[in-house]
Amino acid sequence: MGREIDNIHRSDAVIICGGRSGTLGEFAIAYNEARPIGVLLGSGGVADSIRQLVRVISKAGKEPGAPIVYDSDPQRLAAKLKATKAAATPTNSDGGYSGLGGSAQ
Questions:
Q1: Are 13 and 36 in contact (CB under 8 A)?
Q2: Could you report the average pLDDT of every consecutive run of 10 residues in the chain (105 residues)?
Q3: How is residue 17 annotated by DSSP?
Q4: Are the beta carbons of 52 and 86 closer than 8 angstroms?
Q5: Domains, the chain
């Protein structure tokens, strides 16, 4: 899992599209590291279960530290993620976005 951690740390944002266990692991890292996340709905795999996972994780007391946006159109998703990213300013020393809370757009 070292490569995934390094990739997430070097990313300004993450897009989840389809995927299986590796994508789920990358989502978990991005979520815990408070990276903005875009989810391509209708792409199958893990991506189509992210909303439910966020609900479960939030109920367990771990709210998203950065926005999570959803869309079924890749271009709209990228535009939403870019707009969300532009509106946010990193507040942690590691580049995280503490205190923003998740967005179910």
A1: yes
A2: 86 95 94 95 97 93 90 97 75 45 38
A3: E
A4: no
A5: 2-87 (3.40.50.450)
